[in-house]
Specification:
Length: 299
Amino acid sequence: MRNQVKWTRRGEWLELNPGKAILEAEDRDAETMIWLTNAVGMPEKLLRRLTHEKKIQWSGARLRLALFPSRPLGIDSIWQELEVLYEDDFCLVVHKPAGMTIHPDGRKGEVTLDHVVAAHFEGMGEEVAVRHIHRLDQDTSGPVLYAKNEWAQLRLDEDMRLKNIERKYIAFVEGNVRSSLSVIDLPIGKDRHHAQRRRVSPTGQSAITRVRVEEKFTGASLVHLELDTGRTHQIRVHLSHLGHPLLGDLLYGGSIGLIKRQALHGEKLCFTHPFTREYIEIDDPWPTDLNDLQNILRT
């Protein structure tokens, strides 16, 4: 249900107007806590901390919450062109290009999405810690969601845990995928013979991928995919196991004749806004290399 509470940001403070019933309550503090929890949906952990630190204050008829304190970025900023798909005081969604990792892994001189997002915050004059909510493989393109304060992080982390954040992908795969294929429900575990790979394994973790065939070409197919679970390399492992490795996915047996990276793109991200509870759909248009690949396959 959408949160109808009106709010205004003033620096580090979020200002709310709870109304007369709360203002004139016999035990205003107790009623305020109930209102923040039930009507506004404030995460309990954050409510306890701000209460303890006396960062929930009244200013006349306005209730003020210190939701936007200055925080260190937590990572070096490196400027690079960044495509912002959505942004407000709580959330940021950006396009991750293929070939870029999200978080540093210790390699010297690497530029990750987190570095570039840090530069974006810095350029906007925002002192915000860089907190990504989910990841994409290095060679997968698509939208990545960031939380810009503790409220957003707590809510979005919980939504990820409850599988309430939808990630929808498209992929070009080898072979003609049968049109009747709709769900791949096969557990995934580590490959004992290859440190980077995963494989379908009866002792692995549950993994469910939903599939819809969009278009068939000579020797290849375009499929839409949704994840019910988020296992490492899930889409790549599932489709390779069924004999349809992604084009360009050398690690899982895909041909690199037409494209040099796995032909996988996150085209849509859907989530509930952590404060307003509004349902948000973010579209991320296909990169040029996938449009080019489709045109080649159609000829």
